[in-house]
């Protein structure tokens, strides 16, 4: 996987496109919306096409992960993107996971220069970079 030369402007446009969108499980959530959309914008590769529309709640998302043989969201992301060995090496545009309350216990985030973009029930939010527990190269 290789980023386009103009990946920064493509990512900025994708974040702007996503900002007003509501959270919808399986359609526009942290995986198929935020993370998948960012990877698609930066590389042209839709690494979550097979997941889109296959779940509609946190419970069905957790069940799908289990059916696919993953014990965590981070493990599922690691099956699609190479993992950073050290969190200190994470770059803008990389994907990460952060801890959250709920059935999945993790959410996908998008690394920015000074924070992590996340998707909340009310739209895009940000959390400190120190919250990431795993990170993946795009």
UniProtKB/TrEMBL annotation:
Residues 2-138 form the DUF6950 domain. It comes from the Bacteria. InterPro entries: DUF6950 (IPR053802). Pfam families: DUF6950 (PF22262). This is DUF6950 domain-containing protein.
